[in-house]
Amino acid sequence: MSEKYGVVFVLGGPGAGKGTQCVRIEKEFGFLHLSAGDLLREERQKKDSKIGNEIEMHIRNGTIVPVEITCSLLHRAMKESSNQNFLIDGFPRNKDNLDGWNREMSALTEIKRVLFFNCSDSVCIQRCLNRGKTSGRSDDNEESLKKRINTYRESTLPVIEHYCNLELVSEIQADKTQEDVWAEVKGIFEKICS
After folding, report:
1. What gap in Å lies between CA 130 and CA 157, rounded to an integer?
2. Does the chain have fewer CB atoms within 10 Å around its N or its C terminus?
């Protein structure tokens, strides 16, 4: 592969609207949406997967899956696609993820932007509880959500700060309606793609 994969990281608390907006970005701008969480959930569904069992334990405990697992799943998905540009949703979530990404993936990728969906805890919790009624996700409950929000505050905000220092972050106020958020996201992607 001669050209590096283009990557936009999509970060924000659980329920901030990352996945919802990624679907629209994918459709409008052709970036392939890779959700770190979805890739981990798919792997954990596989029968007799040692990695899947380890992932399940971390998800149930609200802890972060080891970075090597997540990077290998992301890289496999990139290679298997015919795409060159990717949205990576919900990753890197902490300094270990960031260091692991830089170690494992920096030679293969170029970070084009980091979207930071900034949303209040109360809105995030309500959105996840609503989603939990139909999602079947074991982590869409109040106890797991409180753990996930604490983990996000302690671990992910410093990663966003790191990318702010590199002037790569576009912060979006995600408490607004889907349409208002999309208008902002669309403007950012028009610049990325020009």
Report:
1. 25
2. C
Give the list of residues 6+ apart from residue 71 with CB closer than 8 angstroms, or none: 100, 101, 104, 105
Q: Does 48 or 91 have the greater pLDDT score?
A: 91
Closest CA to 171 of 160, 159, 156: 160
pTM of the model: 0.86
Helix (H, G, I), strand (E, B), or coil: what is residue 171? strand
Segment 159-166 long-range contacts (CB within 8 Å, at least 24 positions apart): 159/11, 159/92, 159/93, 159/94, 159/95, 159/97, 159/98, 160/11, 160/114, 160/116, 162/98, 163/9, 163/111, 163/114
Mean of the per-residue pLDDT values of the chain: 91
Orientation of helix 95-105 relative to helix 157-165, angle to 10°: 50
- What CATH number matches the domain at 5-188, 2.40.50.90, 3.30.70.120, 3.40.50.300, 3.40.50.2300? 3.40.50.300
Of 25-39, 43-57, 148-162, the poorest mean pLDDT is in 43-57
